[in-house]
Amino acid sequence: MKRTFTIAAMLLMCLNAFAQTDLSYKKWEDGKLAIEDFNRRTADDENICVIHTGIDTYSGDWEKVKWNLRVKRLKSTTLFDPIQSWITKDDSLSTQALRYSQLVFDMTELTRRKMQNHLYSGNNDKGSNFTVGRYFDILAAQSAEISRITDRGRNMAEIEAQEKIVAEELASVNETFTEIPAYNLSKLGVGFHIGATSRFHVGEYAETFSPSFGFLMGMSYTFGRSEIYIDLNFGGGCRLLKDMPGRKLETWKAGEKLTYINPDLVYAFNVYDGNTFKISPFAGFGVNNIYYRNPDAASEVKDDDNIGFTLLAGLSFDLKFLNSLFLTGDPVRSSINGGINEHSFKLRVYAERTGLGNGVAPYSINCSLCYNILSKSMKH
Question: How far, in Å, CA of 280 to CA of 361, rounded?
Answer without folding.
Answer: 27
